[in-house]
Amino acid sequence: MKNETEKMRELYDQWQTQGISKQAFCNRNGMGYHKFNYWVKKFRGKNVATMSPPPGFSQISVPQPELVGQDQQALAAITFPSGARIELFGSLDASFIRKLIL
Asked: Torsion angle, CA of 42/48/52/57, rounded to 10 degrees?
């Protein structure tokens, strides 16, 4: 049987991958915000090596596109934790991608 620390660690890890606010996660899982926030602070204070990496951006290299017909494949795709996917065609502008994500 899992102790409370193990249960809360699993919930914390789930929250990290879902990309939603703490309040929304608590509402979905029927738990008190203040209790969950206590555990979030506790886990964030632990050794960095034991924590899952924070979400963020990674640099990617994308070749210049060639003009092709309708069977053109996406140059890049962004898949969110929720399963939503954005496929990008044509020239890629970093500021445009940033607007899509933020």
From this structure: 120
- Rounded to the nearest angstrom, the gap between the alpha carbon of residue 37 and the centroid of all alpha carbons in its chain is 19
Cβ-in-10-Å burial (0-12, 13-18, 19+) of 25 comes to: buried
Quick one: which of 32, 24, 21 has its CA closest to 8?
A: 32
**pLDDT tens-digit profile of 38-58?**
999 888 876 444 545 556 666
| Separation CA 101–CA 2 (nearest Å) | 36
Residue 85 sits at φ, ψ, to 5 deg, of -135, 135
